[in-house]
Design a protein that fits this description.
CATH topology of the largest domain: Aspartate Aminotransferase, domain 2
Strand order of the largest sheet: 2-8-7-6-5
Radius of gyration: 22 Å
Bound molecules: pyridoxal-5'-phosphate
Structural class: alpha/beta
Distance between the termini: 56 Å
Strand content: 5-15%
Order of helices and strands: HEHHEHEHEHEHEHHEEHHHEHHEEHEHEE
């Protein structure tokens, strides 16, 4: 008999989590105005709000923290991290920042100006925010297959080269400071980019004299998908694949809270000395001196160790198989999920789950609330609430997809937790016809409303 799969680590420290009753949860979610961001973490049994900064550090990472050097300038922790970035990603220049969006802020301050265009696969919302804040625009050149949940394409994060070249032909190169490739592509469901596509994007960009930057939060998960899905890479190590990926980039921004398995941190890495010097000035203004940026020495040490562990195959296999385990269970229960499964999360298709609810009643949010009430599992709506209103008409923007995202923290939960999540969703699915109404907004902020929005069930509200 073939041996079953098991995690590539054992547990040395545990943190208790609290089960609650349905009655308690109904009270708490009402008090939270039906916004899951307003729940206290101890009101949540299994927290799938995000995989960002929620991972469990290893014994080696904690040990490296004790060796952190808190010198203001030239700390050994800085040099440890510099060496790890050189060894694993191949860049000579780097700047530490406090998280991913800070890296974007610093780099784009040096790079992006009014009227610029920045093409790429679907830009992450903070990336897009930092581009648009500078009165520049982000142009989405992702392949069309990415937007069809029924198409099984192995690399839905790929850039359409024709769309990209059209941008290069339309705008003068002075107006295009860089192309950004997000690996894996978060906004299209954690979908990877193939090595072939990375290579072709780089070659095309060099032909037009355009710089390529990787938005790298989940670069290691991307490398895992290259190894397991792309021809010619099965026998290569993750570190070899990562090294090749970055030969097709001129620089990168990183949210270390994802694939580097730390709770806070980020960085910029570059090949060009000139651009590094320019960005360093902004780093000093916004983040801190260039040898610590927004990070303490112990955190840089843990990050250096995390980069090494995060690019080990055994760890990645454990992680990505756990995400797929949950996806497969849900599929077996008939729950509609997006395929192929992404690297960091499972996306439940709420419109197919609750087809009788109108989109005006926030279908994915309704499902998120039902799942919380069922088992204390906290997911997040990726739908109309997140999409905000049109800035001009102030009408709701209804995205094509209403998704409930279940993001899996790294090395935190066991497959028993995955079983609880799957059965909880199955129970909601089995009684889906009893969910007759959704929610309406009582209070909202003008932008990024999903964090603070207040909702009420439709039967209690005035005009659903
Ligand atoms: C999380 C993320 C960011 C922003 O990073 P923070 O650390 O949350 O500031 C940028 N890009 C991508 C692709 C991300 O997933």
């Amino acid at each position: 008999m073939e041996l079953p799969f098991a995690e590539s680590y054992k547990i040395k420290m545990v943190e208790p989590i609290r089960k609650s009753t349905r009655e308690e949860r109904e009270r708490w979610i009402k008090k939270a105005n039906y916004n899951l961001f307003n729940l206290k973490s101890n009101q949540v049994f299994i927290d799938l709000l995000t995989d960002s900064g929620t991972g469990a550090m290893s014994d080696r990472q904690w040990a490296s923290m004790m060796l952190g050097d808190e010198s203001y300038a030239g700390a050994s922790s800085y040099y440890n991290l510099k060496q790890a970035i050189k060894n694993i990603l191949g860049f000579d220049y780097f700047l530490p920042t406090h998280q991913g969006r800070a890296a974007e802020n610093v780099l784009f301050s040096a790079l992006v100006s009014e009227g610029n265009v920045v093409p790429g696969n679907t830009h992450f919302d903070t990336t897009k925010g930092h581009i648009e804040f500078r009165k520049a625009s982000a142009i989405d050149c992702t392949i069309d297959e990415a937007f069809d949940t029924t198409v099984l394409h192995p690399f839905k994060g790929n850039i359409d080269l024709n769309k990209l070249e059209a941008v290069y032909l339309k705008y003068p190169k002075e107006q295009i400071p860089c192309t950004i490739v997000t690996v894996t592509c978060n906004s299209s469901g954690g979908q990877p980019v193939s090595m072939e596509n990375l290579r072709e994007v780089y070659e095309l960009s060099k032909k037009y004299g355009i710089r390529v930057i990787f938005d790298s939060a989940r670069f290691a998960e991307n490398a895992y998908f290259i190894k397991t899905r792309e021809e010619g890479y099965a026998d290569k190590t993750i570190k070899d694949i990562v090294a090749e990926m970055y030969t097709y980039a001129d620089g990168m921004t990183m949210s270390s809270k994802k694939d580097a398995i730390v709770n806070m941190g980020g960085f910029i890495a570059l090949r060009e000395e000139e651009l590094f010097k320019k960005a360093a000035q902004f780093n000093i203004i916004y983040e801190g001196y260039i040898t610590y940026g927004g990070m303490s020495g112990r955190d840089m040490n843990a990050l250096a160790q995390g980069l090494d562990e995060g690019t080990e195959f055994d760890y990645l296999e454990t992680r990505i198989k756990q995400v797929a385990y949950l996806g497969q269970k849900l599929k077996e229960f008939g729950v509609p999920v997006q395929e192929p499964f992404g690297g960091h999360a499972i996306f439940v298709d709420a419109k197919r789950f609750l087809p009788h609810l109108p989109v005006e009643q926030y279908v994915a949010q309704t499902l998120a609330i039902e799942l919380y009430k069922e088992a204390g599992v906290r997911g997040v709506e990726i739908g109309t609430l997140l999409a905000d209103r049109d800035p001009v008409t102030r009408e709701n923007r209804y995205p094509k997809l209403e998704l409930l995202r279940l993001a899996i923290p790294r090395r935190v939960y066991t497959n028993n937790h995955m079983d609880v999540i799957a059965v909880a969703l199955k129970n909601v699915y089995d009684r889906r016809e009893e969910i007759k109404m959704g929610y309406q907004i009582v209070n909202e902020a003008p932008i990024l409303r999903h964090f603070t929005v207040e909702l009420a069930p439709c039967e209690e509200a005035m005009s659903c």
